[in-house]
Amino acid sequence: MVEKRIQPLARDAMAYVLAGGRGSRLKELTDRRAKPAVYFGGKSRIIDFALSNALNSGIRRIGVATQYKAHSLIRHMQRGWNFFRPERNESFDILPASQRVSETQWYEGTADAVYQNIDIIEDYGVEYMVILAGDHVYKMDYEWMLQQHVDSGADVTIGCLEVPRMEAVGFGVMHVDKADRIIDFVEKPANPPGIPDKPDFALASMGIYVFHTKFLIDALRRDAADPNSSKDFGKDIIPYIVKNGKAVAHRFGQSCVRSDFEHEPYWRDVGTIEAYWQANIDLTAIVPELDIYDKSWPVWTYAEISPPAKFVHDDEDRRGSATSSVVAGDCIISGATLHKSLLFTGVRANSYSKLEGAVVLPSVKVGRRAQLKNVVIDHGVVIPEGLVVGEDPELDAKRFRRTESGICLITQPMIDKLDL
């Protein structure tokens, strides 16, 4: 690995986060908010990981393109990411689809979401663009990727995960030569090409791209003029460069940020109820695969002012307690029992209730004697007294959104329909 330069390239880069997607596989969790705005890890939102990576990497110019049901996301960024100062050559731009190019045109694809804001990008005069997806959970130092991009002379450098070859069938896969130059880009292949030095593994796209700014702008303008283009990086921009220019793969393991407690590179697309539940519950492990307590690479977010969590009552069958759990501030565990659960800010769990494998979003109220196992409970839900979830699969599936493995998503409209 090359040594970092004395003058970081990140100082002359802009991070552009694509945060307009709904994330329909999260079902009702994204009925009111875009996927990047979905809560994660007790106090954060999913988008905080991409934004924190950019900030911690030394990037001080950030733009976020929003579109689908963006109010929750915009409000979060206004509250939690408002500390950038223009007088320090810093900027943080929220870029909703605002029909700036055409009076009838919203963002048509990921490439169009950048193209429509070319004038803003040009005003900053940055040398490099780091294009990021706003809906993945990981820790990464983009400076290493920027340096590989410059040293290799690439037109585009693409962040890639090393995944077992036959697990890559759901990804865009990079077919590379021995120097990691991309010779073909295959979308969701039935037989993914292996890596030359690791034939049992494939390189899957992370949706992270580094360009020289001028090259990117030229590529976007060419693509915008093509009536047959779908205006998408993965479908149009990247395949064109692979065929007509120089595209290079950057392996995530080279820039993944790990504390002493993290042994493997951690990256998750929490795009399904199952994956979302699992990634949150993973944080309750004694040594989680993702270390969110690493102060050298903090996950920045809206620092909500809240009182400490409180656990009350100490009777034999009415004891406020939690084991193998993560509990955020302003939670009151009043005679309830938690095991392997993650509670966001402001949850109230009342007497004799039991929660196991529960991911509970902010401001939820759990009624007395409720028994909840393997659930995701949406923001602000009021759980009725005595509700039992996780014991009768057929009943759960009739009442709630239940996955094949038995994870139940609970929202307030679902509760309101119950005949209790």
From TrEMBL:
EC numbers for this chain: 2.7.7.27
Binding positions for alpha-D-glucose 1-phosphate per the UniProt entry: 107, 172, 187-188, 205
Reaction catalysis annotation: alpha-D-glucose 1-phosphate + ATP + H(+) = ADP-alpha-D-glucose + diphosphate
Site (Could play a key role in the communication between the regulatory and the substrate sites): 67, 106
One Pfam family linked to the record: NTP_transferase
Pathway assignment: Glycan biosynthesis; glycogen biosynthesis
Keyword line: ATP-binding, Carbohydrate metabolism, Glycogen biosynthesis, Glycogen metabolism, Nucleotide-binding, Nucleotidyltransferase, Transferase
Boundaries of every Glucose-1-phosphate adenylyltransferase/Bifunctional protein GlmU-like C-terminal hexapeptide domain copy: 307-410
Domain spans labelled Nucleotidyl transferase: 16-284
Tagged with keyword Protein biosynthesis: no
PROSITE patterns, alphabetized: ADP_GLC_PYROPHOSPH_1, ADP_GLC_PYROPHOSPH_2, ADP_GLC_PYROPHOSPH_3
Annotated SUPFAM superfamilies: Nucleotide-diphospho-sugar transferases (SSF53448), Trimeric LpxA-like enzymes (SSF51161)
Keyword Heme appears in the UniProt entry: no
UniProt record, GO biological process: glycogen biosynthetic process
Molecular function terms from GO: ATP binding; glucose-1-phosphate adenylyltransferase activity
Top EC group: transferase
Subunit structure: Homotetramer.
Family: Belongs to the bacterial/plant glucose-1-phosphate adenylyltransferase family.
Function (record text): Involved in the biosynthesis of ADP-glucose, a building block required for the elongation reactions to produce glycogen. Catalyzes the reaction between ATP and alpha-D-glucose 1-phosphate (G1P) to produce pyrophosphate and ADP-Glc.
PANTHER family found in the cross-reference section: GLUCOSE-1-PHOSPHATE ADENYLYLTRANSFERASE, GLUCOSE-1-PHOSPHATE ADENYLYLTRANSFERASE-RELATED
UniProt-recorded name of the protein: Glucose-1-phosphate adenylyltransferase
Originating species: Rhizobium gallicum bv. gallicum R602sp
